Amino acid sequence: MKRILNCLASDFTKMNGKDLKASIEAAEGRTMIAEIVCTATPLYPGLTNAEYAAAFGADMILLNMFDVNAPRIMGLEDVPAENLIRKLKVLLGRPVGINLEPVDVHALPAETLQKLPTGRISTADSLKRAKELGVDFICLTGNPQTGVTNNEIMQAITTAKTICDDDCMIIAEKTTL
Description:
Layout: H1 9-13, H2 17-26, E1 33-37, H3 49-55, E2 60-64, H4 84-92, E3 96-100, H5 124-133, E4 137-140, H6 150-164, E5 169-172
Parallel strand pairs: 1-2, 2-3, 3-4, 4-5
């Protein structure tokens, strides 16, 4: 397996999630991921913010605020929703992933929570949809005020592994203030 640092765009088209993980491991910690708010207006017309991040050396692009039920990436407005991720991967020549949030609907909130659209919540349906859209990896994330718990992240990892198998790499993290 090639280190992610040595991969060309054509290498990524042949990789599944298991291969991507091995490629990252082979790089021994020298992999940079850039998280892009894909609903933000591009810095300059004609390019997506993801393209800027790739141009500045990001090895992987993580799309924050991506809704699998209403796919949208600013700068790619003329691309059909079903092809957005695939088109972005062609433009970047890099792996592209999305955030999904494992919201715990049974947890007692300590504060007022944001209401997330179902296409941004980690459910079996959203995981299947992400896979259909062609994402290379899924980050099960917990932003503040969304109701994500460590327990729900653990359950989401199990569900994601079952649904995505080796097709998508699964990563997880939780942000706290």
